[in-house]
Amino acid sequence: MKPEEIQDLDDLIFKEFQGYYPDILNSNFSNQFPQTIKLSSLLTISSNFIKNSIFNCAENDDLYGIKILFRSLIEHYLRFMYIWFNWIKYKNDDISKKYIEFNEARDKLDELKSQIAKYKLSNPESKMVTLNELIQKHPDLKKYSKDEIEKETLKYSYKNIISFLKQIDHKHETETTLLGSLIIEYSKLSAFVHGSSGSHNEMTEYSNKSERIKEYERICGLAFQMAGAVKLLSLLMLVQTDKDRFESNYLNIDHIMKKLK
After folding, report:
1. Cα(127)–Cα(186) distance, rounded to whole angstroms?
2. Helix, strand, or coil (residue 145)
3. What is the pLDDT of residues 54-67, one digit of tens each?
4. Phi-psi region for residue 174, left (φ > 0), alpha (ψ -120 to 50) or beta?
5. What is the distance between the alpha carbons of residues 182 and 254, in angstroms, rounded to a whole number?
6. Spatial distance between the Cα atoms of 47 and 30, rounded to a whole number of angstroms
7. Given a cut of 70, is residue 100 above it in pLDDT?
8. Over the stretch 136-193, which tens digit does the pLDDT of each residue have?
9. Residue 113 pLDDT > 50, yes or no?
10. pTM
11. What is the predicted pLDDT for the residue at 117?
């Protein structure tokens, strides 16, 4: 299916999304699982932005850009699936709460590390405050040690999430095949993110525009499916507590997604 035809389908899904999204925060699900709905909403919106940018790159014949964005979308999709499967398994807010708390701590920890690196670069001979000393100045970081933060957030790396998903869903061959393909795809796409020679070599392989168009069709189709799946599975959670309000939206999006050829 051509990228513009895929985008037409996606517009139908977004129209459906606009109709139900304002009701999410007032739902029973939101009251029972506020951290899970927060994460679900954030990943829905961010994956939607990335997907839109992928469509724009296809329209502008920007193969390099679309490859970088696709790698980011894969990671957003996998993180959502980690949260979704944990909610399905435990039906509580604990994993989502921990995910938010530790990721925020990791972001702050990485920021402190960069501050130290910047200072050392400008003042190599000066005595610099240690990372542990900086951590003590941040109350939100004092709850956990540096090692605890790094160990917990390692669970959210793409390889560990895929391993987790394969353990959860090992009975479904199709899903396992998809996850396996994402590992390969994600690794190959790192060349584009980091500007290594692999990305430049691949660009020469797509010097023929007709070949690039085929690749745009493939990636746009996958982006449509992944961003749509995030919306669809979010609705599936909402249906558990608010069936009358969200079931029709779930069925409508499911119907639209099945139109992809």
Report:
1. 40
2. coil
3. 999 999 999 999 99
4. alpha
5. 22
6. 20
7. yes
8. 777 777 788 889 999 999 999 988 998 888 777 555 444 556 677 777 889 899 999 9
9. yes
10. 0.91
11. 83
Residue 9 corresponds to which tokens in the numbers above? Answer: 């389908």
Question: Looking at this protein, which amino acid is placed at residue 44?
Answer: T
Backbone angles phi, psi at 26, to 5 degrees: -100, 10
* Contact call for residues 189 and 68 (beta carbons, < 8 A): yes
pLDDT value at 83 more than 80: yes
pLDDT at 86 over 80: yes
Side chain identity at 234, as an amino acid letter? Answer: S
CB 1 within 8 A of CB 261: yes
**What is the distance between the alpha carbons of residues 89 and 67, in angstroms, rounded to a whole number?**
33
Answer positive or negative: Cα dihedral of 204, 208, 209, 212. negative
Pair 234, 39: CB distance under 8 Å: no
Return the structure tokens found at 13: 């899904």
Distances in Å between the Cα of 148 and the Cα atoms of 102, 141, 205 are 9, 11, 44
Nearest of 181, 147, 154 to residue 77 by alpha carbon: 181
Report the Cα 247 to chain-centroid distance in Å.
24
Amino acid at 96: S
For residue 155 the two structure tokens come to: 């669970």
